[in-house]
Every structure is written in structure tokens, then in C-alpha cells.
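Structure, all four chains, one model.
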Amino acid sequence: MRELRDADTKTLILDAAEVAFADLGFDAASLRHIISLAGVNLAAIHYHFGSKEALLAAVFRRRIAPVSAERSARLKRLEEQTGDGPLAVEGVLQALIEPALRMAHDPELGGPAMVRLFGRTIVEPNETVQKLLGEEFGATFARFSTAFARALPGLPEPVLMWRIQFVIGAMAHLMCDPGKLKEASAGRCDPADTDLAAREMITFLSAGLRAPWDTGLGNRGGEVA
Amino acid sequence: MRELRDADTKTLILDAAEVAFADLGFDAASLRHIISLAGVNLAAIHYHFGSKEALLAAVFRRRIAPVSAERSARLKRLEEQTGDGPLAVEGVLQALIEPALRMAHDPELGGPAMVRLFGRTIVEPNETVQKLLGEEFGATFARFSTAFARALPGLPEPVLMWRIQFVIGAMAHLMCDPGKLKEASAGRCDPADTDLAAREMITFLSAGLRAPWDTGLGNRGGEVA
DNA sequence: GTCTATAGAACGATAGAC
DNA sequence: GTCTATCGTTCTATAGAC
């Protein structure tokens, strides 16, 4: 466990970069802004990380492993408890959402800034960032796609693909810009209440995922599970 | 109707900026990139628009008025047809989504690039861009918030606020990065098929909006409408 | 209105002393 | 490992000729 009181330069940079990338986006967050937040020298970034791009990768990798592990563990537990039947959609969503939102309450996991950065990364237009996202999230994405398919037997695969994109979009939007909800609701909705946020998301998204689908024959597909 | 064959400098710049801002984001799309797309001089941008920020505002304003008008008209028609009862959720979603996606097929309305830009703007971290979005979208947002409330009587307002954010997030993600769905589905889902996209979105989102809600007392709220 | 030329600032990255 | 100083580039914005 690293002591905060004498955090080394590398950690100071990672912490500052996390906040800067989350709030401003990759392009707009300059190395000079990051060093001023971290209270270190400009050259230190290149010494420890090599480049801006490598810094983002380091920030991301530091936090994503615990989240991915927790997601995977929850999914595995759900699968074991379920046996051979279809998975509960809510359970799969929980395994996807809660480990990400849990970061907000634990500075060890990154805190609220890391939640924002996770969301931001998904909608970041920069190609380098998207490549990094694919490398770091690809396995998790595939794992959950399969789980959703097993939770929604009968749902045609293309329809599921559309719906998974909606799930990701809704998650990303709330995670990367929680201020918007607070502002729109004049403070009555608090995105910092992550237990509530998870519940609201799971309620909404599970209903969406389970919606009857259009068979393309003018009729509707059956209810799922 | 403006002739494309001898479009004036101002229009050339607007067209190029639309594509550049949509694909790269506001910060990453440089004026030099835009003038090279447009085939005009760098000074021309400042002469016609004054600043990069003012250029984005001009790009945005040129296209948003027809969309907002169409959205409002559809909502009004729905309200007139409905009378005093609750609005159909699907109808409200249609009025919100279809006018935006319709841009893709009509170069007069901006084409596919403008759909991407609409989505991109929503998730753009730049403060200036968010201020512009608030000014241009605020009235529409308020109008549709009211319509959703009327379509979902009994749904507590804070819950509705959460759900509207999920709707916006799902829309924005699909609009600003249609390539992701195509890639994730290995080409089997085509986001360019906007009729299908609208149907999939409306099916998913209306089910989410209508989901039973948690009353906070351990029981569930009634079904809506 | 359209251009060339350039100002002035900020950027990522690096060399080299300590 | 840490720093200062600076390189070379790119950015938005502008001055001024035509």
C-alpha cells in the first residue's frame, strides 16, 4: 500500500492526469496543465512515461484491472448460482455497472474522477484513445455480450447488438457528465449517490433490454424470460 | 436554394467545419484542417466568422433550427391528436429522434456528418461548446421534459430526470459514433439505416421509460399507462 | 472579399547540467 | 531522478497588400 503523504512523482502525475483527462478530455488536457496540478516538472512526465499517449495508457491501466476483475468475478458468481437456465438481466447489468460506479467511493480505486474518465474515454473521438479502449475493454465487452445473449435467449443477435450500444451510451453519458443531471434536475437528482444511480440504471436498462422486438413480419417477438 | 456548383466561401467553410468538428471534436479539429477540406484561405474563416468558437456556433445554428421546428411540430401534432389523455411515450420519442436522424438522408439538412455532430456536441467536454448547447437545445429539452412527464403520469419527477438522461446518452452515443455498432456487430448492424435505428431506439427507450419504479418503500410503483 | 505573411502563444518533446 | 532551458511544431488570430 502506497503512502499518500509521500507519494512519489509517478503517482502524483498519474493522480493529476486522471483528473485532467476526465474533466477536459485527452486533447484539451495539456501536459503543462497536468504538471501544474501535480506540482512536478514537465520533464518528469516524459522521464516516467515517455509520451502523453503513454501517460493516458498508464492512468487507464492502473485502474481498469480491478474493475475488470470485479466485473468478471460477479459474472462468474452469477453464472454459478444460475446453473443452466438463462441469466437474470438485472444480474448481468449489476455486474457491469456496480464495479464501475464503486470506484467513486474508494480513492484506492480512483475516486469520482476515474468514473468520469471511464465514461469520457468511451465517447472520446481521438483515435489513439479509441485504440487503447479497444485493447483494454475488448475482453470485457466480449464477455458481457455473451452474458447478455444468455440472459436474453430468443432475442435476435443484431437486436441485442443495438441494445448493448444503448446500454453503453446511457452508462457513458451519466458517468462522464454527472453534472448534467444535477443541473437539469435543479439539484434534486444526485449522481454522487451511486447506489441510487446503479438502481435507476439497472431498472431502466433491464426493461429496455427485455422489450419485445420487431420480427420484421409486422408482428412482435415474444417476451423475453 | 443555393447552388452547390458555385457555393460561396462561407458555405464551403461551414460544410467543411461540420465534418471536421463531427469527426475530430471541437478541440482537435483545427482551423487549418478545416480550410484544407474547404479549399479556402485561413483568413477567410476569421473574416466570415470571427473565431473558431463563432464558427462552431454558426455550423450548429444553421442546422438546428429545422430540426427543432420539426420536433416541435410533431410534438404539437401528437398533443392535438391525443386530447386530454396521457401522450404515447413512443410518440414523444419519435418526435425527438426521427427529426434528428432524418438529417442523414438530406444534404439540405446536413447529411450524416451533422447527425454525428449533434451527438458529439452532447458529449463534448469543452465548456464553450456546452454553453452553446445549452443555449440552442435548452428550449427543446424543456419542451420534451414536459411531454415525457405527460406521457408518464405517476412517474416521480426525479426518476423521470434520471431516465431522460439515459435517453439522451443512448441517443448521443449512437449518433456520434455509429461506427462502433457496425464494428461490434461485424457489419451485421447498419446504423446508416436510420429507419431501423429509430425503431430500435424507440423500442428500447420506451420500455426503459415505462419500467416500474422503486418507491423507496421496498415495493414497486405501478405500471405506467 | 480574398490573399500572403506573420505575430504571439501554447503545445509535446528533448538535451544536458546537476 | 530531477531540474532548467529550449527546440521545433502547431495553434488561433491579425495586419496589411491587392
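Residues 64-209 of chain A form a domain with the Tetracycline Repressor; domain 2 fold (CATH 1.10.357.10).
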